[in-house]
Amino acid sequence: MADLQALREEAESAIASASSAGELEELRVRYLGRKSLLTQTLRGIGELPAEERGPVGKTANAVRVALEELLGRRTEELEAGELDAKLAQDRIDVTLPGHPPSPAGHLHLVTHTRREMEDIFIGLGFNVVEGPEVEFDHYNFTTLNIPPNHPARALQDTFYLSPDVVLRTHTSPMQTRSMEIQPPPIYIVVPGRVYRRDSDASHTPMFHQLEGLAVDEDITLADLRGILLEFARAMFGAEREVRLRSGYFPFTEPSVEVDISCFNCGGSGYLRDGSRDSLCKGSGWIEILGSGMVDPNVYGFVSDMGYDAERVSGFAFGMGIDRIAMLKYGVPDLRMMFENDMRFLEQF
Ligand code: DAH
Question: Would you report the helix, strand and coil content of the chain in percent, each value rounded to 5?
Answer without folding.
Answer: 45, 20, 35
